[in-house]
Amino acid sequence: MIKKIAGKYVVVGETKTSSGKVRKFGTYNTLAEAKERLREVEFFKHRATK
């Protein structure tokens, strides 16, 4: 999920951790950069493990 916070785009996890916080995957200046990072996160999340 991408949220706009203080003029920047932040990639955050959709679920909360056990302590109630969301996991951040980076802060980016443009929406395109944030979308690219979100795509990378989704790729590794759904990657088949051996």
SSE string:
EEEH
Helix content: 25-40%
Distance between the termini: 27 Å
Helix count equals: 1
| Domain count | 1
| Rg result | 12 Å
Low-pLDDT parts are: none
What spatial form do the alpha-carbon principal axes imply? flat
Strand order, biggest sheet?
Answer: 1-2-3
How much of the residues is beta strand, in percent? 35-45%
Find the count of extended strands (DSSP E, 2+ residues).
3
Averaged pLDDT: 91
Largest sheet: 3 strands, antiparallel
Describe this protein's structure:
With 50 residues, the protein is of the alpha+beta class. It has one domain (2-45). Helices cover 30% and strands 40% of the residues. The chain contains one helix and three strands; from the N terminus they run E-E-E-H. The protein has one helix at residues 31-45, and strands at residues 2-5, 8-16, 22-28. It has a three-stranded antiparallel sheet, covered by helices on one side. A hairpin with a 2-residue loop joins strand 1 (2-5) and strand 2. The longest helix is centred in the C-terminal third of the chain and has 15 residues, at 31-45. The radius of gyration is 12 Å and the shape is flat.
